[in-house]
Amino acid sequence: MITTTMITNDPPQQRRLTPARLSPGDLIRVGGAGLRARPTRILLSALGIAIGIAAMISVIGISSSSREDFNRQIAELGTNLLTVSPGQNLFGDQSHLPVESTVMIDNIGPVESVSATGVIAGAKVYRNDQVPAAQSGGISVVAAKPDLLDTLGGKLVAGSFLNPATEKYPAVVLGATAAERLGVGSVGPDQQVFLGGQWFTVIGILAPVTLSPEFDTAAIVGWTSAIELLGFDGYPTTIYTRAEQPYVEEVQAVLGNTANPAAPNEVDVSRPSDALAAQQAADTTLSSLLLGLGSVALLVGGIGVANTMVISVLERRGEIGLRRSLGATRGSIRAQFLAEALLLSAIGGTAGLLLGIGVTALYAGLQGWPTVVPPWAMALGLGATLVIGCLAGLYPAVRASRLSPTEALTAP
């Protein structure tokens, strides 16, 4: 059988080959293989990212936990406590509040409760009468009305507070710090302190008073006994006022005129919760500083990732040349090295996120705070990780893709 071959002058049909593209799954596998080849270097680079992310997360988490505890305390103590104290007159001398100021303030409609205290300047308190006069321990002696504890929202850790009966006798309630300095840990007839040259029986010990920390270092005696036994002049030094929450601002505006109608300019009115808010704002400023330091640590970690990827490109030029000679495109090479940088940063970022949450939980637990790590902080941490990884891997990836197959294969 004779076979005839047809020969034509037509040009052969050109077939255009389209290079295969790496799927996302392939990129992850190829990137992971590149990282597994250098575990020690990868671990150190990921550690830099982890430290930066952990610093950011822990600073934000601890600050948020502190703020949550602050809000919880304020909600418990209330923001409706106002204080009235004497200021200075036109000549710069210390003025005083009228004896009737407490009654006049109590006549304000939205006022829920009011109580007064008076500092007894000449009185000192000691554990016994053998202690030298100079060693008073910085404890102030304060005269108070029986309703003071309810107005402050304070609590006792032992004994009871002054009442209409005990406030007439030599009985004293110690603040938390005052009791510690005097070495008094219990109450009763056998627990006495030497106060103003007389023996006073300790009938109660206060818990720390958050809104009025001045009571922590105070020895509180009854108003009547202070006048009769200690020479107290009866003028209130500070008046504590609880107002209905919706009318706090209105009550605050009229307290000066009500407490001392003759000289309202000589009256100082304050809101203790505002001082706590200012302290919280100062803590926030410190947190911002620490957050900045965490950002610097994160930047250093990103530089470490970039350094690792640049060295990886230099070490793997033979691999790059081989892949290019087998048909890999520049885009594939770029994608491979970029994927390695992103995976490296993601590993460090995930470890840093877990470490930051752990540090926050540990510190908040030690302080007795609720543990709060805002979701936006975690999202910010992971987002910053990916951005750092992308930026750190971009230059090495572009550099690797620009290597020609011949240059890469012949490089030493």
Give an overview of the whole structure.
This protein is of the alpha+beta class and 412 residues long. It has 2 domains: 24-73 and 278-410, no CATH class; 81-272, no CATH class. Helices cover 52% and strands 14% of the residues. It contains 12 helices and 11 strands. It has helices at residues 24-36, 39-77, 101-106, 148-152, 176-182, 223-230, 248-259, 272-315, 317-325, 330-367, 375-401, 405-410; strands spanning 81-86, 111-119, 125-126, 140-144, 156-159, 171-174, 192-195, 198-206, 218-222, 238-243, 267-270. Strands 1, 2, 3, 4, 5, 6, 7, 8, 9, 10 and 11 form an 11-stranded mixed beta sheet that branches. A hairpin with a 2-residue loop joins strand 7 (192-195) and strand 8. Helix 2 (39-77) runs antiparallel to helix 8, helix 8 packs antiparallel against helix 10 (330-367) and helix 10 (330-367) packs antiparallel against helix 11.
